[in-house]
Structure formats: C-alpha cells, structure tokens
Amino acid sequence: MSDTALSLGLPAPHAGAGMPARVTVYEVGVRDGLQAEKQVVPTRAKIDLALALRAAGLPVVEATSFVSPRWVPQLADAADVLAGLGADLAPHPVLVPNLRGLERAIEAGATSIAVFVSATESFARTNLNSSRAEALAAAVDVTVQARERGMNVRGYVSMCFGDPWEGVVALQAVVEVSRELIDAGCHEVSLGDTIGVGTAGHVQHLVEAHRAVGLRASDLALHFHDTYGQALANVHSGLQAGVTTFDASAGGIGGCPFAGSATGNLATEDLLWLLAGLGIQTGVDLDAVVRAGVAMTDLLGRPRSRVAAALLG
Ligand code: HMG
Ligand code: MG
C-alpha cells in the first residue's frame, strides 16, 4: 500500500475476557524516543511530532526533559519545544531530575512533570549520578514542591525487571520506590522495563506485589521495551492484572543514553493494534500515529515499527 492510498485499517475486534473497556496510551516518543539519538533532531521536527501525536488523539504526549544538557544534549532545547506546543501544556509532561530542573520547567510554563528513580543502585549512579536513596529523596522533594504549586506529577521507576549490572531485580526493591513516590503525591507510577527483559508472569507478580502494599492497578502504568520481543505479551499480562495505562513510543524509537541495552520502546502503533484487536477503546487514530511515527523513523534513518511496516509495505 502506498503512503498516499492510506486508509490503513484495523484488526477485527474480538473482546478478550476480563479486559478493560478503555486504556490510556501515554506517548513517550518525543522524549524517551529521542533522548538517546546522537544526531540532534531539529526543534521544529520535535514540535511537529508532538503536535501530530496529540492531533492523533493521544491524551498525553510527554514533550522533553529538563535534565542537564551536558548529560543529554539532544534535549537541550526543552524550553523551545514547550514554547512550540501552545498554551495548554497539561497534556505535555516533562521529565525533571532535580530542583534545578523543576525551576527550568516552571519557567518554561510546564504544568505536568515526571520524576524518575531507579529501582537499582547501579542505574541510579549511571543515570542520575547519585545513590538510589539520594535519587529517591530528590524525586520526593521535587514531587512535594511541584504538588504545592498545583502541578501534576508522574513517577517513573526504571530497571523494574532486570538491570544490566545487577541482574534480576527484587519485586520489593521496586515496590518500596513506588510506594514512596505515590505517598509524596505522584498520581501514578510508571514501572519501566528499561532493558526489555521482563516476561508475562513477572508482570503479574510485580502488580500483585504492589497490591500487597496497598497500591492499586490504577496507581500504576507499565512501560515496556521490546528488546526481547516480549513487550506486547507483557502488555497483555498487565491488562489481565488490571492495569489500564501503557507507555509507548511512536515508531518504536528510543532507549536510554545511560543503559546501552535499553533499545526499542514498545511502538505505539503495535500497542494500538493489540488494543484494537481486543476491542479496547483508546480514542487514538492509528493511521495518524503511523504517519507521525514514519516521519520520525525516516528522518532518523531507523526501521519502521512492525505495524507501520506491515501497513505501508
Ligand atoms: P550532575 O553532573 O551530578 O549535576 O548531574 P550537579 O548537581 O553536580 O551539577 C553540575 C552542573 O549541572 C551545574 O552547573 C548544575 O547547575 C547543572 P554548573 O554550576 O557546573 O554550571 N545542572 C543542571 N542544568 C540544567 N538542568 C538541570 C540541572 N541539574 C544540574 N536539571 C543530573 C546530575 C541529575 C543533573 C544528571 O545526572 C542528569 O541530568 N541526569 C539525567 C539523565 C537522563 O535524562 N537519563 C534518561 C532518563 S529516562 C529514564 O531514566 C528511564 C525512563 O525513560 C523509563 C524507562 O525507559 O525505563 C523514565
Ligand atoms: Mg523507555
């Protein structure tokens, strides 16, 4: 099928037993997708991607990070990206690593932020140049201060399933970080399989371990990387466990600059295909996401997502 002949179609819906009627797709392509790219993407292309994804119906399109530009040069244009996204920045959360980042985000007009902490010691040091406990304390501090200003705060926990330096990660190591982030005022915690080693049973156990400390499935989002081809199986397992928010990246772009094995976020198009096939509503136009994702993967010279490749040939 050529790009100009698009009406791409959807799978026939076959409702799955015990599945939710509706799911929130949390788009991370503009931030997580681009943060590890060495070739600096023009600010205009980032803004166009974010606007196209919002226009496609995605309710949240994370925009950028107010991290150190020395650490992540690709996102040094964070304030300029926000300036291009219009007056209502609530649907465009930004990552904030510390109080300096919070100040910069507020100055740029952000009203929604995300803090991020590692479940493991090694990744806290590599990603945030601090111990796990210091990073958690900093995230709690940022969350409390942002909440006092009426901002929305999401928490991320990374390396929830495995860590390239430490191996398998204990369920409790994740749960204690999630609990602190929710107690500090995060409205949800996204559990990241940063290096894509999670499997379906592990997902169930992790959600159950959260339940055991009083955190509901509605407090959680799941963030999968498709490194080992397990991302959609893990989403299905998360749906069965009651989770209704899933992170994904248009075109499947991205990873983490501080964990070499963190390749391939779950592609938004692939996630939408699964959800449509299960008869689950998302409010998102798959064709429009395919077009936006392909514009970016082509610009980066990266392969297209599986669904984009299947639909566009
Ligand atoms: P540091 O070098 O230890 O910082 O970095 P510092 O506190 O020692 O300060 C050094 C200099 O940086 C100072 O400037 C600060 O002002 C400046 P100087 O006085 O030398 O001129 N600085 C800043 N400048 C701008 N914005 C800031 C900021 N903070 C300090 N926010 C730091 C510590 C936390 C800043 C650094 O390690 C950092 O930015 N890390 C972020 C790395 C990153 O973005 N990683 C990817 C995040 S995604 C992820 O973790 C996983 C996720 O996607 C989910 C998943 O896939 O699993 C969420
Ligand atoms: Mg990611």
Draw up the topology in text.
Layout: E1 24-27, H1 29-33, H2 43-55, E2 60-61, E3 64-65, H3 78-83, E4 94-95, H4 99-107, E5 112-118, H5 121-128, H6 132-148, E6 152-158, E7 162-163, E8 167-168, H7 171-184, E9 188-193, H8 200-212, E10 220-224, H9 231-240, E11 245-248, E12 255-256, E13 259-263, H10 268-277, H11 286-300, H12 306-312
Parallel strand pairs: 1-2, 1-11, 3-4, 4-5, 5-6, 6-9, 9-10, 10-11
Antiparallel strand pairs: 7-8, 12-13
Helix pairs in contact: 2-11, 6-7, 7-8, 8-9, 10-11
The structure holds 3-hydroxy-3-methylglutaryl-coenzyme A and magnesium ion.
Magnesium ion binds at residues 32, 192, 223, 225, 254, 265.
Describe the structure.
By secondary structure, the protein is α/β, with parallel strands linked by helices. It has one domain (17-312): TIM Barrel, CATH 3.20.20.70. Helix content is 41%, strand content 16%. It contains twelve helices and 13 strands. The chain has helices at 29-33, 43-55, 78-83, 99-107, 121-128, 132-148, 171-184, 200-212, 231-240, 268-277, 286-300, 306-312; strands spanning 24-27, 60-61, 64-65, 94-95, 112-118, 152-158, 162-163, 167-168, 188-193, 220-224, 245-248, 255-256, 259-263. The strands form three sheets. Strands 2-1-11-10-9-6-5-4-3 form a nine-stranded parallel beta sheet. Strands 7-8 form a two-stranded antiparallel sheet. The protein has a two-stranded antiparallel sheet with strand order 12-13. Helix 3 links the parallel strand 3 and strand 4 (94-95). Helix 7 crosses helix 8 (200-212), helix 8 (200-212) runs parallel beside helix 9 and helix 10 (268-277) runs antiparallel to helix 11. It is globular and about 50 Å long. Bound molecules: 3-hydroxy-3-methylglutaryl-coenzyme A and magnesium ion. Magnesium ion binds at residues 32, 192, 223, 225, 254, 265. 3-hydroxy-3-methylglutaryl-coenzyme A binds next to helix 4, helix 5 and strand 6.
